[in-house]
Structures are given as C-alpha cells and as structure tokens.
Amino acid sequence: MRKSWWKILGVLLLVYTFIAGLLIEVPRNPQLQETIRNLFFHVCMWFGMMILFIVSFVRAIMYLRTSKHIHDIASRQYAGVGILFGVLGYVTGAIWMSYTWIDPNKSIFDSFDTIAREPKLIGAAIALLVYAAYLVLRDSIQDMDKRARISAVYNIFAFAMLFPSIWIIPRLLDSLHPGGSDGNPALDPGSASPNMRLVFYPAIAGWTLIGVWIATLKIRIKILYEQKLSQ
Amino acid sequence: MKKLITIFIFICSTFLTNAQNVEMADKMKENGKIYVVIAVMLAILAGLVLYLVRIDRKISKLEKNK
Predict the structure, then answer these.
(1) How many CA atoms lie within 13 A of A35 on its CB side?
(2) What is the per-residue pLDDT across B23-33, written as a single tens digit (0 to 9) for each?
(3) DSSP 3-state assignment of A172?
(4) Cα–Cα distance between A208 and A53 in angstroms, integer?
(5) 3-class SS at A209?
(6) pLDDT for position A190
(7) Are A31 and B18 in contact (CB under 8 A)?
(8) Were both Cys, which of A63, A194, A198, A223 would link to A71 (CB 3.0–4.6 Å)?
C-alpha cells in the first residue's frame, strides 16, 4: 500500500462517525426525531461529491496547462467517484425525505407534487446530469489527445454549472429542505445543534478521504492498463 | 391583556411539552440495543475497507512487477 497515513486517518474518522454519530445527543425535533443523524451520512455524500469535483476541475486545468496524460486520467476518475457520491447523496436523500417530508394529511400523489418541485432536488439533478454528459462526451471521442482536451474543457464548464445549480439557486428559493432562503443547507443546517458539529466535520473529512482513496485506486489501475496497451 | 398573556403561556407550554414528548429512540439507548446497530455498521465498514486494502495491495504488486 502506498502513502497510507491518510487512508488510515479516513478509516478512523469513519469509525468515529459511525460510533459517535449514533450515540451523540441530538436535538429533539418533532419532525426529524432520530433521523437527524442522517446529517452525518447524507450531507457528507454531497460534501464528498463537491470536493471530488473540485479536484477533478483542478486536474482538468492542469491537463490543459501541461498536456500531461496523467492529469487527464485523474480528472476523469475523480469525476467518476464524485458522481458516485452524488448518486448516493440523492438516494439517501430520497429515503430520508420519504419519512420526513410526506404530509400525512395529503395523498401520496399530492405530497409528491410538492416534493418534485423542490429547487434543491432539481438543481442537484441538473448538476449530476451535466457530469453524466461529461462521461458520455468523453467516451464518444476516439482520438486520445482530442478526447483529453475536449473533456477537460467540458469539465471546466460542468464545474461552472455547479455554481448556479447547487450553490446559488437552491439557496434563493424556499423549500422543505433546510437552508432555503434562510441560511446554509450544508455547514449550518437550521435544526442541528452545535455539538453535532463535533461529529459532522470529521465525518465530512472521513467520507471525502475514502472517496479520494477509491479515486486513486482507479487512477492507478487505469495507468497500469494503458501501460499494458502501449507495450 | 390577561387573555393575551394566557394565550402566550398556553403557546409556550405547548412548545415545552412538545419538546419533551418528541418520540426518540430513548429505549434503544437505555437497553443498549443501539450498540448492536453500531456493531453491524462497523462490520460493514470493516468489510468494505478490507476490500479496498486488498485492491490497493494488488495494484501495488502489479506496479512493482512491471
């Protein structure tokens, strides 16, 4: 194993998250009850996704500056793991929402009608689809240098799309999701108590480190694969 | 005025009782069953991490062999 201290750190932080995340005192919120602990898992997926996308964006710029093939491979793999984290964030959010946002006084259909209009869900869906298009675009180009250059440029565009779709517009509009027009959906969710941050911030770091670990493994496999092809 | 104060106290008291009566998994903590959940989650985490470590080792070996 290569340079393993941060991998161990990531695992330890996750162990801490799993233990403290279930045992820590949480506010007694009548709507959320114990599900408030999902903060340590669901929200961290989105954080991991954003950080991985930032790394992917930086590697894309580095590729355009240096034309070194390694940056292209890294950019692609970080984006891939970022999309995985985003999908996991979406799935966990869908489960959490089904138990906290459904209005018992309305039919399921009417409840879903309001949920489907959520600006955060739409914004996140747009962001993920833009990144999915990155994979499609990449794989549709045969020439290696052309593929690397075009996908690096598209990666920068996809990253720029994150700003309106998940960082700006959802914060301007009212929604059932915490942190609509009244604050921050990520770092300071309204119903979380200050002591939850003792678990929340380490959880973000832990999940992100695991994501980076997976991405580095994929990069190393890809490099081995290409070396074998060129032999 | 008196009416307003009673209404205010009434609202406050409903909030207070609300905060007390929120149903949480207190029993699970009391009888320690929450530790079972933690054990299961840690087992899954351990399995996934061991899997990652094995992949990492294998890749390192391949990188050395080339």
Answers:
(1) 14
(2) 888 888 888 89
(3) helix
(4) 11
(5) helix
(6) 64
(7) no
(8) A63
Query: Min CA distance, A146 vs chain B (Å)?
Result: 28
Three-state SS at B15: helix
Interface test with B, best of A26, A31, A34, A199 (most B CBs within 10 A): A34
* Distance from C-alpha of A177 to C-alpha of A79, rounded to nearest angstrom: 26
Find chain A residues with C-beta within 8 A of B37's C-beta: 22
CB contact at 8 A, A200 and A43: yes
Is the Cβ of A227 closer than 8 Å to some Cβ of chain B? yes
Question: H-helix or E-strand containing B59?
Answer: helix B34-65
Find the helix or strand (DSSP H, E) in which A11 lies.
Answer: helix A5-23
Query: What distance in Å separates the CA atoms of residue A190 and residue A180, rounded to the nearest whole number?
Result: 10
**CB-CB neighbours of A96 under 10 Å:** 17
* Residue A193 touches partner B, C-beta closer than 8 Å: no
Q: What residue has token string 């890294």?
A: A74
CA distance A179 to A186: 8
Give, to the nearest 10 degrees, the angle between helix A69-100 and helix A197-230: 140
Alpha-carbon distance A62 to A65, whole Å?
Answer: 5
Q: What is the ipTM of this complex?
A: 0.84
Contacts of B19 in chain A (CB under 8 A): 28
pTM value is 0.88
